[in-house]
Write a structure and sequence with these properties.
With 237 residues, the protein is an alpha/beta fold. The protein folds into two domains: 3-130, 3-Layer(aba) Sandwich (Rossmann fold), CATH 3.40.50.2300; 135-232, Arc Repressor Mutant, subunit A, CATH 1.10.10. 42% of the residues lie in helices and 22% in strands. The chain has helices at residues 12-24, 35-44, 61-69, 86-94, 107-131, 163-173, 182-190, 199-212; strands at 3-8, 27-32, 49-53, 77-81, 99-102, 137-140, 143-146, 151-154, 157-159, 179-181, 222-225, 229-232. Helix 4 (86-94) packs parallel to helix 8.
């Protein structure tokens, strides 16, 4: 199966090498060197993967990542960065990047990361298909989750959730009372595990709480289990 990959990279040499490697992987690649044009193309087309440079003209990779993750459609993102600081890598992951590579990198390493992203996407698709037979409507207090329609209502009003926020909410709501560690959530919802980056989960949960909790400082749905992780409140709990 041929995969469609969008590459947003302004270094022509790196862009050419990435495109050659994608061809070796039987991928249909498109290269764009400008951040604004790249975002527009990703929003307009359907791609199986976005390979995204951090430093770009007109709009940087972090802003592109942030805007894409505020949309319902989910495109896996492999971020490229010439910066070696942990802060840049962590920020990229917290904004929703699926993986990252620090320049300079080998084409073999790029191929391995691309294959890993595709494997995770296939795994998540299979899990979603399997889950289709599970309960399609989940209700908890004033929260109503329609899995098939991909929508959540709070007291009858729609809640604007990103694709990953919705997936995280469904995962919690399907097992009320069960405690999940950050590492488990990262593995089960994001489909990968980056040691030390469990706070990516924290930032998503904080955003989710701000959208579904009446008092985010005293959450009634997604509760913290100190020293362990998080759980979805049990009925009547």
């Amino acid at each position: 199966m041929t995969r469609r990959v969008l590459v947003i990279e302004d270094d022509p040499d790196i862009g050419r090498l990435v495109m050659l490697q994608l061809a070796e992987l039987d991928c249909e690649g498109r290269l764009i060197a400008d951040g604004v044009a790249g975002l527009a193309e990703c929003e307009a087309g359907r791609y199986d993967l976005l390979i995204l440079d951090l430093m770009l003209p007109r709009m940087d990779g972090l802003e592109i990542c942030r805007r894409l993750r505020n949309q319902a459609r989910y495109t896996p993102i492999l971020m490229l960065t010439a910066k070696s600081s942990e802060l840049d890598r962590v920020l990229g992951l917290e904004l929703g990047a699926d993986d990252y590579l620090t320049k300079p990198f080998s084409m073999l390493e790029l191929a391995a990361r691309v294959k890993a992203v595709f494997r995770r996407a296939d795994h998540q698709q299979a899990a979603a298909t399997a889950a289709a037979g599970q309960e399609a409507l989940i209700e908890a207090g004033g929260l109503r989750i329609d899995v098939q329609r991909h929508e959540a209502l709070l007291d009858g009003k729609p809640v604007d959730l990103t694709a990953k926020e919705f997936e995280l909410l469904v995962y919690f709501a399907r097992s009320p009372g069960r405690v999940h560690t950050r590492a488990q959530l990262l593995d089960q919802v994001w489909g990968y595990s980056h040691s030390g980056y469990e706070h990516t989960v924290n930032s998503h949960i904080n955003r989710l709480r701000n959208k579904i909790e009446r008092d985010p400082g005293n959450p009634g749905y997604i509760q913290t289990v100190w020293g362990v992780g998080y759980k979805f409140a049990e009925p009547g709990g």
